[in-house]
Each structure stands twice: as structure tokens, then as C-alpha cells.
Specification:
Layout (H helix, E strand, L loop, with lengths): L1 H33 L7 H8 L8 H33 L6 H4 L1 H14 L8 H20 L6 H25 L5 H8 L7 H20 L1 H7 L3 H6 L4 H23 L5 H13 L3 H25 L8 H20 L3
């Protein structure tokens, strides 16, 4: 009886945390909509969101800030879930699409599309996904030695990332006359996002998020270790590949819209894990909501901190993420 009571109390507490994260995400969206070159009060924002077209701020909110904020929402969700999945597969809190090289594959293929084949830029998301998936498979093959270990995957990822980034640098050298359009992609930027970008990312986000949530229990089993998960009937290598591919899809859909935005997949899942624990049925929705909060607030800071100059959100995340990575490196001493 006491065990059941304690279990229910624990679940209730985690659901309360999820509700708190949801409130923070909603507040961050409102803050993102309200702050910029022109400040808009909450009442005007809500009236516009609920269908009013009479406000003087209608064009600013509906045509400029709302699509940008929605892109931030979906990118934050996708990168946070991608990082959470990679950290689970590799059993390492420093795993992240940007750090281990998955993002570099998407970046190389995306940059190639933008610089070499600009007429086919509408295929950026599927091409970036192929790049991320190819990078993930390359990392997996480099790490394979009668199975893979989380440490070998991370080391292989760092090596693959360096190799792929050199390819991007080579493209910049050969196509220096076209580089301006790709600079924003390499930094990670949410400026000038439109409803068209929202329409592009939503299907990939819905598919990726749904598959991730449906696979949460499998990740919990995988976290028990290879021997234990195999004894429970789980195809360990098959699901490890599945989660890497799913992480690549989520990361690529975000990267193809905003560019190489780092550290979201590192900071958010780790912070969520410290609060709600390792149960992926709770960790994944918590990471998604916290990803929305972090990215919306970071983008808002980039818009207003040095106004009228706007800093790309990738710079803000770098300022936050690099010290956090060094903190993890010192605390865990994993590498």
C-alpha cells in the first residue's frame, strides 16, 4: 500500500513538473511575440491570436513574429528530442546532434544544396535529412567493433564532424561568390521566417515527435544495458539504429530551416533529466517543452539585447551552451 502511494506521489510530482514546463513554454511564446523593435502588450497579442484583425499590431504579430515564434517552437522541440534520444542511445549526457557530427552531415549536404544547386533549395529538408542520416551511419560504422559502445560513438562522431566541417570549408572556398546566402545557415538564425517555413517543418515535427513518444518505453529498456535489454527480447542494435535515424530526422528538419543551431540538444535534455529523471515517457515531453522555452527566450534576447542590431539565435545558444558543455565535461569526466 505504501509503495503504491509513493509511486502515485512520484508520478503526480512529475506530471506537475510537466504542467509547469507547459506554462513556461506558453509564457516564452508570449514574450517572444511581445518584444522586439516594437513592444506589444499581452491583451493585443491575445486578441490577434483569437482572430481580431483590428489591432494596429496585427501585421507585426501575425505576419512577422508569429511565424518566427512557431518556427522557434518546432525547432526547439525537434532539437531537444533529438538530443534526448542521442543521449539515451549513447548513455552520455554530452551527446548532442551538433557535437557528435549528425548536424555536420546535415550542414554539409544543406550547404552543398545552397551553394552548388541553389535551384533545388526547395529540397533542403530531405537533402539535409539524408546528410544527417549518412553522417549517423558513418559514425555507427566507424564505432562498430563487434558491437558499439557509447564512448566509441562519441569519439567517432567528433572525428566525422571534423571531416564533414572541412568539406563545408572547402565549399566556402570554391563558391566564395555565393557564400552570403549560406552564412546565415551556418550560424543558426530565426530571422525572416515566414508561414512557408512553418508549413515545411510541421509535418516532419509531427512525425518525429509521434514516433519518439511511441518509442519511449523501448528507450527505457535500452537504457538497462545490452545484456539486460536482449534478455527482455529487445533487438538492441536494431533499436539503437532506429533511435539514431529518428534523431537524424528531427535534427535535419530543424537544421534545414534555421541552420546549424548548436547546444539546444545538449542543454535542454540534460536539464530536464536533472528535474524529472531518466524515464523517457516523462523526459521526452519535458525536454520538448523546455526546448520551446529555451529557444524562444534565446531568440528574444538576440532581438532586443543589442537593438537595433539583431544577434542570430545561434550566437546566443553558443554563449549559453559552451560553458554548460565545459561544466559537464569537468563534472562527468566522460572524455
Amino acid at each position: 500500500m505504501n509503495e503504491n502511494k509513493g509511486f502515485r506521489k512520484k508520478i503526480s510530482w512529475k506530471l506537475f513538473i510537466i504542467g509547469l514546463f507547459l506554462i513556461l513554454a506558453i509564457l516564452s511564446v508570449i514574450i517572444s511575440l511581445g518584444f522586439g523593435a516594437v513592444s506589444v502588450d499581452v491583451r493585443s497579442i491575445l486578441s490577434i491570436l483569437f482572430g481580431s484583425t483590428d489591432s494596429e499590431y496585427y501585421t507585426i504579430i501575425w505576419n512577422i513574429r508569429l511565424p518566427r515564434t512557431l518556427v522557434a517552437v518546432f525547432v526547439g522541440i525537434n532539437l531537444a528530442l533529438s538530443g534526448a534520444l542521442l543521449q539515451g542511445v549513447m548513455r552520455n549526457p554530452m551527446a548532442d546532434p551538433h557535437i557528435i557530427g549528425v548536424s555536420s552531415g546535415a550542414g554539409l549536404f544543406g550547404t552543398t544544396m545552397l551553394l552548388v544547386f541553389p535551384a533545388f533549395s526547395h529540397l533542403l529538408i530531405p537533402v539535409a535529412f539524408l546528410g544527417a542520416l549518412a553522417s549517423a551511419l558513418l559514425i555507427y560504422m566507424l564505432a562498430w567493433d563487434k558491437g558499439v559502445s557509447p564512448m566509441r560513438i562519441i569519439l567517432a562522431g567528433v572525428a566525422a564532424s571534423a571531416f564533414l566541417n572541412s568539406g563545408v570549408s572547402a565549399l566556402y572556398t570554391f563558391y566564395s561568390d555565393r557564400i552570403q546566402g549560406a552564412v546565415s545557415f551556418m550560424v543558426g538564425n530565426l530571422s525572416a521566417k515566414s508561414w512557408g517555413h512553418v508549413e515545411i517543418i510541421v509535418p516532419y515535427s509531427l512525425i518525429g515527435v509521434t514516433l519518439a513518444l511511441l518509442s519511449a518505453q523501448r528507450m527505457n529498456v535500452l537504457l538497462l544495458g545490452d545484456a539486460e535489454s536482449k534478455s527482455l527480447g529487445l533487438n538492441t542494435e536494431g533499436y539503437r539504429l532506429w533511435f539514431i535515424a529518428l534523431s537524424a530526422l528531427l535534427a535535419a528538419s530543424a537544421i534545414s530551416i534555421v541552420g546549424l543551431l548548436g547546444f539546444v540538444g545538449l542543454i535542454v535534455p540534460h536539464a530536464a533529466r536533472l528535474i524529472v529523471g531518466n524515464d523517457y515517457r516523462i523526459l521526452l515531453p519535458a525536454s520538448a517543452l523546455l526546448g520551446v522555452t529555451v529557444l524562444c527566450l534565446s531568440d528574444t534576447i538576440g532581438r532586443v539585447a543589442f537593438a537595433p542590431i539583431e544577434l542570430p539565435v545561434g550566437i546566443i545558444m553558443g554563449v549559453i551552451g559552451a560553458p554548460f558543455f565545459l561544466y559537464l565535461l569537468r563534472k562527468k569526466r566522460t572524455i
